[in-house]
Amino acid sequence: MLHPSVQVGQYQQYLKDYNSAFFDETDAVDLDACCYLHNYTAGKDDVLLAPKFEKVLKEYRLFDSTQSHGLSKFLVHRLAGGSGKGVLEKVEGGRSRPSRKLMEHLSGAIRQHAPWVLLDEQMVVYQRIRHAVRKGLEDQKKRVIIVKGGPGTGKSVLAVNLVGDFLRAVPSTSLGAVTPSYTPGVKLGDLAPSLPGYAIEAIREALPVFGRQIPGFDRDDAVLTGIESRTSSPVRITRDDQTLQSLNVRGLYPCGEGAGYAGGILSAGVDGIKVAEAVARNLA
Length: 284
Description:
The chain has four domains: 4-92, no CATH class; 98-168, no CATH class; 169-228, no CATH class; 229-284, no CATH class. Helix content is 43%, strand content 2%. The chain has nine helices and two strands; from the N terminus they run H-E-H-E-H-H-H-H-H-H-H. It is elongated and about 95 Å long.
């Protein structure tokens, strides 16, 4: 469990990052934070007052049940001289959007390098996710991981680091939850050397666009298999008009684009249905 002063500091940072009233460049509202433990009395050597918390306690004051007078002075000093109604209206009317400072950090994390480092529990969560993915690939069982935490506990930092690895074109070293459909096998690496630069850049720009239209299309563990040909086969593997089986290999059913019986996704799908029906008739 986080120290109460750390928790309140994170809520303060959350408001500063997302409510425009607190980062308006022309007339921002000052924001201070403290915590009041109304049903707790801190002892002389209480763990909440330990030396390791000295810095956070100085920045975010802690008042226990015996210090209501100190809390009152803290509030009076910060609130008595303000125009309460106007400040309240500004906060309530503040737009909920990321601050420029937050967006600059986020952009840097995705496009260049992460300005945050995964610490302690964040790194533990990161490693647990990777371990669960590996186990899922081994035993083919689904797993669900829920990362819990209040505002400012690092959930977004974790996500940014994971997505950042993908967008920075770091060569892949391990698969995610998506299993490659190419059964002969795949070798992880970097597709950039396999295509012209303009093609790679176009793919990187297009993936997030498609992701906004088709949720999950640009997920960070999606598999890009190269080089995949989109052209129709110039030759045709002959098959019987009735059984749709190969003329010289019994039990082989040539179909789709690769065999020369389709010219696109839709026609390939239709041909696949025809062949599936032929297989079913043969097995009946």
